[in-house]
């Protein structure tokens, strides 16, 4: 299937989920992440913040565990009109405001370069068995991942299991290393 069709289908599937279902899936993904990924090996982890109205995975569960149990720098994004993102260290003093898409973003804080990030948690609507993802279609993460070091660990977080293949993958699509679902971790290496 093509990205446009998958995007439409999986937006509908996510919209149909209850708050309790999303909470349960988020907890299972959190558990897989900490059970299977050697988090202590990564000094700086970048994560998206969830858009609750879109039934996105609650990454605050992961963030809270990282803050409580690990000496890891957590970096969060801020989106810009030109399709790029800037990245900021999350601290106890970070102040947020929602952007025009209702995504919580840091107002200002300590800026981080993409090249200093060791692991990225990637939002997605769906993914395929080859490790490619379908997001909201604006290309923010593909541009961001292209700025990261070649060895950055790329981990998608998905409520749903993969489709067989995304038929219109192009040269700008960045393949994930892993994708975590409520049922398992998919390894694309």
From TrEMBL:
GO molecular function, one term: ATP binding
Binding positions for substrate per the UniProt entry: 49, 56
Binding site for ATP: 3-7, 133-141
Co-factor(s): Mg(2+)
Domain of life of the organism encoding this protein: Bacteria
GO biological process: folic acid-containing compound biosynthetic process; tetrahydrofolate interconversion
Swiss-Prot/TrEMBL catalytic activity: (6S)-5-formyl-5,6,7,8-tetrahydrofolate + ATP = (6R)-5,10-methenyltetrahydrofolate + ADP + phosphate
InterPro entries: FTHF_cligase, FTHF_cligase-like_sf, NagB/RpiA_transferase-like
EC main group: ligase
Record keywords, A-Z: ATP-binding, Magnesium, Metal-binding, Nucleotide-binding
EC annotation from Swiss-Prot or TrEMBL: 6.3.3.2
PANTHER family, per database record: 5-FORMYLTETRAHYDROFOLATE CYCLO-LIGASE, ATPASE INHIBITOR/5-FORMYLTETRAHYDROFOLATE CYCLO-LIGASE
Family as reported in the entry's similarity comment: Belongs to the 5-formyltetrahydrofolate cyclo-ligase family.
Classification via NCBIfam families: MTHFS_bact
Name of protein: 5-formyltetrahydrofolate cyclo-ligase
Native source species: Emticicia aquatilis
UniProt gene name: ygfA
